[in-house]
Amino acid sequence: MKKVKKLSISIGLWLSVCILSLTFFAPVNAAESAIIYEYKTITQKKGEAFSSLLEKAGLSHTEKKLVDDIPIFHKAHSNRQFRFAYQIEKGKKKLKEVRVTRGNRLANFVLSNKNGKVVFTQKPTQIPSNATVKKVTLTTIGTDKTQSVSAKSDKRSNVIVVKPTRMKVDSVIPTHLIGVSFYQAKGQSLDQALSVAHLSKLQENIIKDGNYLKKAVGKRAFKLYFQMKGKKRLLKGVRIIRNKSVADFFVKDVGDRFQLVSLKKTDSSTRRQWERAFAKAKVKFIKTTATAKKSSSGKRSSGKYQVLTITQKKGQSLYSALKTVRLTSTQRNLIIGMPATKSAQSTRKIYVLLENNYLRGLRIVRGRNVAEYVLFKYKGKWTWANEKGQIRSNIRTSSRRMGRFPLRYIRVSSPFNLRRRHPITRRIRPHKGIDLAARHGTPIYAPANGIVRFSGRQRGYGITLEIDHQNGYRTKYAHLSRIMKKARRGRYVKKGQMIARVGNTGFSTGAHLHYEVIVNGRHRNPAYVRIPGSGGSSGGTKRPAEARKAVKQYLSILRRLSR
To answer: CATH no. for residue 515?
Structure first.
């Protein structure tokens, strides 16, 4: 019996050893063993731009766009670490995951297909725990002007630490080059400028991925250098010239792609050889008719007078149409206060007459309908008169007319918008009023007589004041620094009375006045709402001598220059 028990125990031990040896020495799947993951770790310092981080990481143009769309704050408020996980299969390298670490906080984003679009979504890591991983740590010393290429490996930690050194180019520098030169106008897009050079799609992408400003701040010249290989033109270098500034780049083969590398990042001997090759190249200049896109506004001048042409399209607000031309905020507000309708029922043209950059007249043309106005000073205030020199007697003089704005000088910093992105919460929230930019402590005046219904603090509005004007109109003032004693709740205020001062209380990014106009319980745009007392019932028309003189002086010039 004892011998049988000993035999069974020995057989059991032998079987267990066989199973363990089979599992331990089992052949690894060839497909799994061929896949290697590479980790690139780079630190974004406090205040460092996100674009410079992507440049240092050495991402391709497509990878940059994908990483740029990750829902994180681009500006680093403190140092944080990015880990880019690449999958290397059959010699091809693909970005699969991005992990962001700041302190004890961690967020992992995995490349996935969402509604037919490839994007990074926040998910736990999909990389197997037993996968073969190669780690690369990018470290930078001093400025970002050097490029990291030389590496030392540590067998224990399997970490390659890349140290910044001046780049040494292994490829042979071409001696016989041909060049093509063209201009990029101020404001012209890079695509439009490159179209005259007849480049291939690959060559265009190489130039677009370069580390320089794509939009031309001023007129600049491009020189592209090619090496002929049979009938093919191989792009070898790019030179960008603006005034006395010159930036030279050469094309470098980086594994699976080409990229533009600045000559400033190379050693002195390499730089001299490339500059010599660029100087010897025969450059052909291409005349281009492509210019920067013009806005819907034109400019005609005659001596000290000039006329700006503004096209206001159907449904477009007058404020956005005026933004297309160069006007001061005072001139813009005077045009908005003109006696004509503000919204365009169909496309119309507005001709603005300036005398030595001073606003003098307007001509509004819509089909066969023409309206003309001149601006002059009447009783110390700027007033509009029609082509006959007539003004309404209630305009600017009637005490019954409600003022449009509660400040003496107006600059709209944020217009009325029911789908505005809040500057603090970054969420879409209706902006039911307008923000008037003003210094802290600027006086605020009552636009009309009324009774104060509310004065105090109101959540995100901060110190708030609300006046009922007893004709269906109510006005609201927010983010105030203080409210006057004579404008407390229940008090009666008169038109032109100082009621408060501009401040920065509540959810605010700076000193300004948030101003709302509520008509019969509905919020209206204060810049365009119909003002009570502006109808023709409270007065007739007048023909002041100043208005007749302005009509005689300016209308003929306005008509001549606007044709």
So the answer is: 2.70.70.10
